[in-house]
Amino acid sequence: MALDVAFEAQKTQQRLLLELDFSQLTVQQKLTYEQRFTLHFPALFEQLFPLYGHCFDLHYHLKMLLQSFIDFQKKKRPAQIKDKSEFWFESNKNVGIAVYVDLLADDLNSLIEKIPYFESLGVNYVHLMPLYLSPEGNSDGGYAISDYRTVAPTLGTNKDLKNLASALHKKGIRMVLDFVFNHTSDEHRWAQAAQSGDKEYQEYYYFLGEDEAAEYNRTVREIFPQVRRGSFTHYPKLNSHVWTTFNSFQWDLNYTNPAVFVAVVDEMLHLVLNGCDVLRLDALAFVWKEKGTVCENLPKAHNLIKAFKACLDIAAPQVVFKSEAIVHPDEVNKYIGADECTLSYNPLMMALLWESLATRKTSLLYQSLERSFQIPKHTTWVNYIRCHDDIGWLWDDAISERLGINGHGHRQFLNQFYTGQFDGSFAAGVPFQENPVNGDCRVCGTLASLAGVEKAVQANDPVLLDHALMRIRLLNGINFAMPGIPLLYQGDDLGVLNNNDYLSDTTKVDDSRWVHRKKITQQDFKLAEDLSAPQGKIARLIRDMIQIRKANPIFGATQFELMSLNSEHLFAFKRTSGEHTLLVIANLSEHRVSLAKPLSDLLGQHTAVDFLTDQNIDLLGLVAIEPLDILWLTQP
Ligand code: GLC
Ligand code: GLC
Prior knowledge:
16% strand; 8-stranded parallel barrel; alpha/beta; 6-stranded antiparallel sheet; globular; binds alpha-D-glucopyranose
């Protein structure tokens, strides 16, 4: 007879309620907790059961977990943000930026002094790149965490982080922190106990023999093939191969062990105590592994993430998850949902905007978004053009095949195009993690360098420079107008170019992502104020777009439609809310492109205003879109 999981959940819930110690809570706190517990425990149980139903100690772990949530209610957190709206992420007022604390400022305290800059830019969502204790030297930009409860001493103290959270909240700015739960650093106390031979902690990781490691390696993708072949690191002293998807000092956690889940939830709540509003689920595609599979995006990874979400809903319901799944688009979408991740990076749109700029064609972008852009109600894309990582060319090959594009060949072309190995390319990027066996590769570089500013300045060519600036305007024009939260990457708002300092730093030289992780200097800020410099022009256009977006609720409209315009160079979409419409139309080529029919047919009116130029436009007289131009059209 099959087990009735819902009934088991109910029984366990009743038993737990009797066993838990509420004595520390006020009557009101207890009531609130019980309400959330009753509401979300069934989901938690339902997700954990497939993972740990066979573990005889599951009840013990559940009890520990739920008691830790009760204790958590007593802990003090920094002042919360005033805006309590449940669906805040749907508003046109949202604009984000991702920053490294030590690259934008020096430390957490001096970052407080950058709040006026966030405000003047119009940003209200700040992702602070990992800032916890991590190994000296190479720590994968902080993504190798040695202690989730301690801020890196070079950046300040835990108290500084809480102060920063309060200061941001006072200004209505949300704070986003990373939840790096696929791996810890090899210096984390669990990893150290494991290294000293403690069996209990060896079970926190994957310690495998050579044959087993080889068996997994046969089906698993290599993420950092230039660091090491395969996904394991051999430790002769431990007589083991440890699972290390990324760098060898990043040890993958073993979630088949329920103790790991419970321990990591506890760390997650410590992150919440710092006052964050969003947790960015780092590398979430890799968290569940099974022999004979690719060990990415497995169904049980979803059980696990949904279980984390149910924990969050019980302990700290005002915090939401953002998914960082840089994988096949169908898989990206599976992490998005009310019961999993509320927000998600949109790597598909990011990659295909760059693809369209290189090919000057929009068919792959259209068809891919047509299939993947729709996500459930009350979930939101985080749209971006660049981030701290490389660009990977992840689209659905079934779609490119249909268009007569060979996926492998096209990726090779894009890599060559963006790393300056293709004649006539405007881009100055750098290759990342070339795979010696299958030729795979990804691309690094700042927005300005990839869009052509660097090459144009070098060639001292005003036409090339004009095109580069138009590309930056076009990319931002799409990013700020598509449904979702637009996310800037530090320095791209200031037109910062690639920086080669990393080449002379032994801890960075092997990781070309540092080419776009530059210390932002006073000089960068000054240049961005000089309207005769490309940097000044870029800074201005981005600021203008943010102002327009925030001033007009149409940029929060949920009704969205891609518009096909009978030209392979154009990209257009429409957003509608009641009587109001926004029609965005962009030309991704350096040529004038004629319109097959007047836009009045699409907007249902003869004249429009272009938000970007503030000009009235006679739609019947508009017969073509200028090179690399973008229009944000609305009713006059
Ligand atoms: C994420 C981060 C990336 C890091 C990796 C391992 O993808 O964005 O920077 O290298 O995870 O933590
Ligand atoms: C791969 C992974 C992604 C990670 C990136 C780092 O694309 O899928 O999670 O951020 O590598 O380069």
